C-alpha cells in the first residue's frame, strides 16, 4: 500500500499550532509505517518525498518563467502559457525517481533543478567519484548502485562521470603556487600501466608545507621509468615556473643526482635525505638476526647533537660492523652529504624533516586506490585514479587542523633558522 503525500494547502497555523521540523518528520514516518510503506527502497517514503520536492521546485521554476501561478486567470493572453508536462526518470541518492517536468508553449523553459537531458542529480555523480577515489572499479561501482539503490548504471556512464575530473585535474595541475615553501617532500610510487604490455611506471608526487602550516599537494607527474633525477629536474623546473621562487628544505629518499637537480632550480635549498629510508636500506644488507643490533648501533649517529659528533659515532659504527657489512658503511658514506644537514637544526625542525613520513601517509592512500585497480589501460587512467585519491584525502577537514597544530612549533623554528626567507615580502 502506498501513501499519497498531498500538496493541499492547510489553514495558516498560529503560534500555538506551529509544528517543528522534527515533529513533521515524525508524523510522516508514523503515517508511512501505519500504511505499511517502506521508508527506503523502491516506492518508499524517501523516494516519494524526493519526487514531491523535485516537482514542487520545478513548478516554482515554471511559475517564475511564465509569470503566473498555475490555474491563475492572469495567464490568459500573457504570450506564453504552461503546456502540460513530460515524465522522465532521474537517478538520485535514494534511487531512480520518476518526475513530471513542466513545459511551456513557447518552448523556452530551461529547468535548473533537473536540466534538460539530465538523468542524474549531482549527488549521484559525487557518489560515483567518491567510490572511484576509494579504489572501486567501474564494474564494482555499477554493482553497488544496483544493489543498494536498484539503479542500473552502465560502466560507460560511470567512466563518463569520472572523466569529468580531468578538466579539474588540468586546472589543478597548472594552478599558481606560493612564492616560498618551508619544506617540500618528494617521492614516487610505481603503478602498473598496460602500454603494449603491463609494466611498472613511476608516478611522481610533490607535497609542500605552507608558511601557514597547511599541506599542499603541488602536483603529480607520470614518468617513463627512466632516470629519476632527470625527471625531477623537469618537475622542479615546472614548479618554479608556476611561481615557487624558494624552498628552504627539500626532503627525499636519497635519489642519486637529485641534489644537483635541486641546486639548478633553487640554489639555496637544503636537500635532506630521509633517515628512515637510509635505515631501511641498511637492513637490506644485513642478516635478519642483526637488524636490532644495527639499528641500536646507528641510533647515536642520527641522534647526535652535531655533525662532528655524528661523524665520531659513525666511525665507531664502521669499526664495529664494517668488516661484516661493508655495504652498509658505503651506503652511509655515499649519502653523508645529504644526511647531515638536519643535524644543524634544533629538535623542532629535526623531527619533521628527518623522514618522508609526511608524504608516506599520502602515498599509502594512493597505493590503496591503485592496488584495487590492478593495472591501468594508459597513463591518463592512472593519473585520474591518483588525482581522485588525493582529492578525497581529508573530507572532514580534521586533517588540516592536525597539520596546522603539528607544524606550528617547527615553523616558528624555521622563521628563526632561515631569517628573512619566510617574511611576508617573500610570499
The amount of beta strand, in percent, is: 15-25%
Low-confidence stretches: 1-17
Envelope shape: elongated
The computed structural class is alpha/beta
SSE pattern, N- to C-terminal: HHEEHHHHEEEHEHEHHHHHHHH
User: Strands of the largest sheet, in order across it?
Assistant: 5-4-3-6-7
Mean pLDDT: 79
Question: Quick one: biggest sheet?
Answer: 5 strands, mixed
The termini sit apart by 65 Å
Number of domains: 2
Pfam family, one: Transposase_mut
Region (Disordered): 65-88
Protein name: Mutator family transposase
Biased composition (Basic and acidic residues): 65-74
List the defining traits of the structure above:
427 residues; 5-stranded mixed beta sheet; 7 strands; 48% helix; disordered N terminus; transposition; Mutator family transposase; transposable element; Transposase_mutator; DNA-binding
Amino acid at each position: 500500500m502506498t501513501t499519497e503525500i498531498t500538496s493541499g494547502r492547510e489553514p495558516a497555523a498560529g503560534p500555538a499550532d506551529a509544528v517543528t521540523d522534527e515533529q513533521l518528520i515524525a508524523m510522516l514516518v508514523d503515517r508511512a509505517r501505519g500504511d505499511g510503506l517502506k521508508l527506503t527502497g523502491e516506492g518508499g517514503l524517501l523516494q516519494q518525498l524526493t519526487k514531491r520536492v523535485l516537482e514542487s521546485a520545478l513548478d516554482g521554476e515554471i511559475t517564475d518563467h511564465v509569470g503566473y501561478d498555475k490555474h491563475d486567470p492572469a495567464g490568459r493572453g500573457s504570450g506564453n502559457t504552461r503546456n502540460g508536462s513530460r515524465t522522465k526518470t532521474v537517478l538520485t541518492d535514494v534511487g531512480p525517481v520518476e518526475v513530471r517536468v513542466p513545459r511551456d508553449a513557447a518552448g523556452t523553459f530551461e529547468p535548473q533543478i533537473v536540466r534538460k537531458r539530465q538523468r542524474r542529480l549531482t549527488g549521484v555523480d559525487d557518489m560515483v567519484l567518491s567510490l572511484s577515489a576509494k579504489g572501486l572499479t567501474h564494474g564494482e561501482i555499477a554493482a553497488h548502485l544496483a544493489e543498494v539503490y536498484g539503479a542500473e548504471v552502465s560502466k560507460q556512464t560511470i567512466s563518463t562521470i569520472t572523466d569529468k575530473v580531468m578538466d579539474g585535474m588540468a586546472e589543478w595541475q597548472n594552478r599558481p603556487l606560493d612564492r616560498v615553501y618551508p619544506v617540500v617532500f618528494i617521492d614516487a610510487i610505481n603503478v602498473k600501466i598496460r602500454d603494449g604490455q603491463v609494466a611498472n611506471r613511476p608516478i611522481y608526487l610533490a607535497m609542500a608545507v605552507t608558511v601557514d602550516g597547511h599541506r599542499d599537494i603541488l602536483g603529480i607527474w607520470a614518468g617513463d621509468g627512466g632516470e629519476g633525477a632527470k625527471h625531477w629536474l623537469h618537475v622542479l623546473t615546472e614548479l618554479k615556473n608556476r611561481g615557487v621562487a624558494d624552498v628552504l628544505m627539500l626532503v627525499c629518499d636519497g635519489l642519486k643526482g637529485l641534489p644537483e637537480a635541486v641546486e639548478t632550480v633553487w640554489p639555496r635549498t637544503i636537500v635532506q635525505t630521509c633517515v628512515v629510508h637510509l635505515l631501511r636500506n641498511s637492513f637490506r644488507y644485513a642478516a635478519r638476526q642483526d637488524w636490532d643490533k644495527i639499528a641500536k648501533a646507528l641510533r647515536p649517529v642520527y641522534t647526535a647533537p652535531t655533525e662532528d659528533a655524528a661523524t665520531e659515532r659513525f666511525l665507531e659504527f664502521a669499526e664495529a660492523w664494517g668488516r661484516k657489512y661493508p655495504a652498509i658503511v658505503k651506503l652511509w658514506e655515499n649519502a653523508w652529504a645529504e644526511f647531515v644537514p638536519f643535524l644543524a637544526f634544533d629538535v623542532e625542525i629535526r623531527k619533521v624533516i628527518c623522514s618522508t613520513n609526511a608524504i608516506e601517509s599520502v602515498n599509502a592512500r594512493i597505493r590503496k586506490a591503485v592496488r584495487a585497480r590492478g593495472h591501468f589501460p594508459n597513463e591518463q587512467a592512472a593519473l585520474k585514479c591518483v588525482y581522485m585519491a588525493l582529492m578525497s584525502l581529508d573530507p572532514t577537514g580534521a586533517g588540516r587542523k592536525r597539520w596546522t597544530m603539528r607544524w606550528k612549533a617547527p615553523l616558528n623554528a624555521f622563521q628563526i633558522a632561515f631569517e628573512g626567507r619566510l617574511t611576508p615580502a617573500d610570499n
